[in-house]
Amino acid sequence: MGAPSSTYRVQFTPSFTFADAAGIADYLARLGVGALYGSPMLDAREGSTHGYDVVDPTRARPELGGEAGRVAMQERLTELGLGLVVDIVPNHMVVPNPWWDDVLEHGQESKYARYFDIDWSSGKVLLPVLAEDAEDEVHEHHVKVNWRRGNTELNYRRFFDITELAAIRVEDQEVFEATHREVLSWGVQGLRIDHPDGLADPGGYFRKLREHFDGWLVVEKILGPDEQLPQSWPVDGTTGYDALREVCGVFVAPTDAFAGDFHAVEHAARQQVADSILVAEVRRIARLVRDVPFEDACRAVAEVMVNFPVYRSYLPEGARYWEAAVKLSSSPAVRALDEQVRADPHGELATRIQQTSGMVVAKGTEDTAFYRYTNFVALNEVGGSPDRFGLPVEEFHQRAARRESGEPLAMTALSTHDTKRSEDVRARLAVLAEIPDEYLAFESEMNEKHGLSEPTLNRLAWQSLVGAWPITEDRLAQYLEKASREAKVRTSWVDRDEEFDAEVAAWPAQVLDEPAVAAFAERVTAPGWSNSLGQKLVQLTAPGVPDVYQGTELWDFSLVDPDNRRPVDYDLRRELLERIESGWLPEVDESGAAKLLVVHKALQVRKRGLHGYRALRAEGAAAEHVLAFQRGGVITVATRLPVTLARKGWQDTVLPLPGAKWTDVLTGRPAAEDLASLLDRYPVALLVQGDQ
């Protein structure tokens, strides 16, 4: 079936089922979407709101409507010309589940013992499930212990530090077939593969998957700013965090007002993760290192993983990243570790250290450092680089052209279920880079009245409040609770500081009625809308297959999950779309209808097909405020740095248009080269050749 023209991501939950998805299919078709892109649809833990905790991969999830509901949904999508893209989880399953229960009952004699990645050297599975004051209960094949022992003594591989998510050995042919047979029978257009870095051999997995699936295949791989997917992977690209970094970055003004030493914070956070929550994984790897005292091996393993410049290497591919980590490591035992890994890049030691390095990086960087280094949180995004302030227009063009030539079917995204904050929050926060003195003065004034006692959380709190404004007390309180505990500075999920927790919980009620907060949020709202429209149009028309995360066709000021899984008002969106289809040109206002107009028109154009990539450059006094490119018979024009632009205006700035007559499909007007005229109604324009 090939790749869809675009996707629309929905989060299946017990309150948004297969039937609900079928019910919005006609709206998605009218919007211009190419395929519905759903969160995991296999049977998951009861009540799960995300579906990544799969309990039975052999059937569609009953809570969502089961097999009959899935079939009915898929038939409805097909009827309307929409494809289906499914998110699958090859790395882990939630425990307990029937397979796991059999292992606990029968031990290594269980049919499913090989399904899970268990270290059987002790002869029993360690289950860290008991309260701190509980006594151990011993079984022939497993032992239940204090939950705190999990991070240091766990003897089965897991997903990050979540002991309830046990890793499975999908590299085993029997396990692969058992976990993939059902979903591969559905005949879907595309698959999104979750967390490939946890697999023993990602390249081998994708080659095996390709033997059974010839549709669109994208992978949730977090790339460094200068990293590319391994060439040997037979996939269409990533799920788009690299594109997110580029698209959002080009709307951020370069400034040193928020400068700091991110890498020092990141290194300390990674070291803390390796020395605490992932000790069990480090120790299991260290036991494989030969001719080195055990404690020395532990230090060497942790040090190398902490120093990784990317999430993981894929030896022998990506050897340069392994080499970089080794060179940065000073432990004497690193040499022995390096020699053993190089001697057998497919051996157990090399495999396990690669599987685990991504865990150290993700937990250390995304889930710790991004909550500690809070100088300018618009850049603190999955796959982001807080030390790279803004992206020059010319670099954006180079990267977009490279994507078009190398991975034209890679997914692109601005918001996902995993983003730290939604695209519209980041767009508003980008404005702060244009007015750093104003913002820092505001923050200083507010700190005198309502400052939190922990400085990094304090800065995160003020930016989050402004970025997500207006926000309810409950939403903000839940977010700050998560942020403070992920940061692990004054409190954490494991070791609480009750006094500090109470201070954080009380903060939202103190600040939400503060007039200065509302006034500053109002100051950055309109330029934030301009950035939102610009980055959305760019994402939807640039190279790649764009995804629209549920609800973000209107303004969406969500923070990290579960805030971004709140119900979507599709009745409102239908009503606004009907008005737009009738010719209504909405104002750029709080309704967000202008964003719906941009999304609708861009997706409709996208369905006709876009090809090639040609950078276009404006001429005149305000030329730096334009990002423009041509793809075949379509031209995208977006305003950037709107606050600075407002101070001087477009003046004589023009965008020379190549060839014949052009029409702006957003307004229906003939396109003018004079940017003051072209962008007088909206801060963006979408031009097509001829009359429309």
From TrEMBL:
SMART domains: Aamy. It comes from the Bacteria. InterPro entries: GH, GH13_cat_dom, Trehalose_TreY. Residues 18-600 form the Glycosyl hydrolase family 13 catalytic domain. One of its GO terms (molecular function) is (1,4)-alpha-D-glucan 1-alpha-D-glucosylmutase activity. Pfam families: Alpha-amylase (PF00128). GO terms for biological process: alpha-glucan catabolic process; trehalose biosynthetic process. SUPFAM superfamilies: (Trans)glycosidases. NCBIfam families: trehalose_TreY. This is (1->4)-alpha-D-glucan 1-alpha-D-glucosylmutase. The lineage of its organism: Bacteria, Bacillati, Actinomycetota, Actinomycetes, Pseudonocardiales.
